[in-house]
Amino acid sequence: xxxxxxxxxxxxxxxxxxxxxxxxxxxxxxxxxxxxxxxxxxxxxxxxxxxxxxxxxxxxxxxxxxx
Length: 67
Ligand SMILES: [Zn+2]
Fold this sequence. Notes:
There is one protein chain. By secondary structure, the protein is α+β, with helices and mostly antiparallel strands. It has one domain. The protein has 2 helices and 2 strands. It has a two-stranded antiparallel sheet with strand order 1-2. The chain is extended and about 40 Å long. The model has no long low-confidence stretch (mean pLDDT 80). Zinc ion (ZN) binds next to loops.
């Protein structure tokens, strides 16, 4: 696996404009198809988490509001 991006093909860098993400110089830009696949997987994961009773963030907030 790539040591720079850990296989994500994305590297994080901080410049004068702030924090940004760019392509890994070693692996090059991610193929659009693969990227879309990952976006879909992420969406599915979020939907799955919501089905299981919402995000932990929302839960901890509602608990804090009650007490
Ligand atoms: Zn890489």
